[in-house]
Amino acid sequence: MNDKLSIFHKLHILSLIILGFSVSLWAIFSDHYAVPSLWLIMLSAILMIHNKTDFLMFLRRFAKIGATLIIISILQLVFRRSGEVLWSYHGVNLIYERGLMEAVLLWIRFMLLFVMASIFSFTSIFDLTRFLVSIHIPLNVSMLFSTTMKLIPFIYMEAKRILWFLQFRGIRFQKLSLKDKIIALKKLLYPLLIRSIHYISYSGLALELRGYGVTEYRKLPISYRLQRIDYVFIILIISLNVVFLGMDQRY
């Protein structure tokens, strides 16, 4: 386990949920980019300080949707025609204050989404199961949900590995026509499905060897409670929200 990620592993999932809820509310309902930008700067700084490699990976993943965001941002600049005119060309008003604001907010909102996804990815499956059981969700349902969450990155990595094999053989998936892409996807799904079935089978066998399913009711012997660092973290989040609420009233 990387020591640089220790602060995220020490935090209770409830603390991360409160953080994600606060960030999401500001990202969705804020009409100005000041407060969402501060959240983005703080979370990005924390992520970069604790693990620079994961921060660079976050930037690479976000760059993959950059072209789509550029197109949507241009549409915001063109069709949002309210507020002060910021730029005109030969008497034609091109960029308005509101259009620029929405274009900037679009990038900030998506970046916040990717940062929070990176932070939540540090949570272990065991802690997730303990949290679900602590809020009185049956253990069988909690284990099913946790196993599904573990299966999603497995499928993603397997699909990525298959695409790598194709590239090594000289097949560039991006250069294929739409018809050839559909044919290739059909052929890719079969080995991916087989690998997923094997993964699920081994996971089910591992659970059976640990005694799950032997009785109708089982409980985790380890409790999952908030620690001192969680209370400090939650108080800090609430305090930041109060300060940011005062700042937001000025805009």
From the structure above, extract its key features.
two-stranded antiparallel sheet, disordered N terminus, 10 helices, 251 residues, mainly alpha, single chain, 4% strand
Proportion of residues in extended strands? under 5%
The main pleated sheet reads as:
2 strands, antiparallel
Order of helices and strands: HHHHHEEHHHHH
Unreliable residue runs: 1-5
- Name the structural class: mainly alpha
Give me the Rg, rounded: 23 Å
Q: What this model shows, in words?
A:
This protein is mainly alpha-helical. It folds into two domains: 1-123 and 226-251, no CATH class; 124-220, no CATH class. The protein contains ten helices and two strands. The chain has helices at residues 6-10, 13-29, 34-50, 52-63, 66-79, 97-120, 125-134, 139-168, 178-209, 228-248, and strands at 85-89, 92-96. The chain has a two-stranded antiparallel sheet with strand order 1-2. Strand 1 and strand 2 form a beta hairpin. Helix 5 (66-79) runs antiparallel to helix 6 (97-120), helix 7 (125-134) packs antiparallel against helix 8 (139-168) and helix 8 packs across helix 9 (178-209). The protein is flat, with a radius of gyration of 23 Å. 12% of the residues are buried.
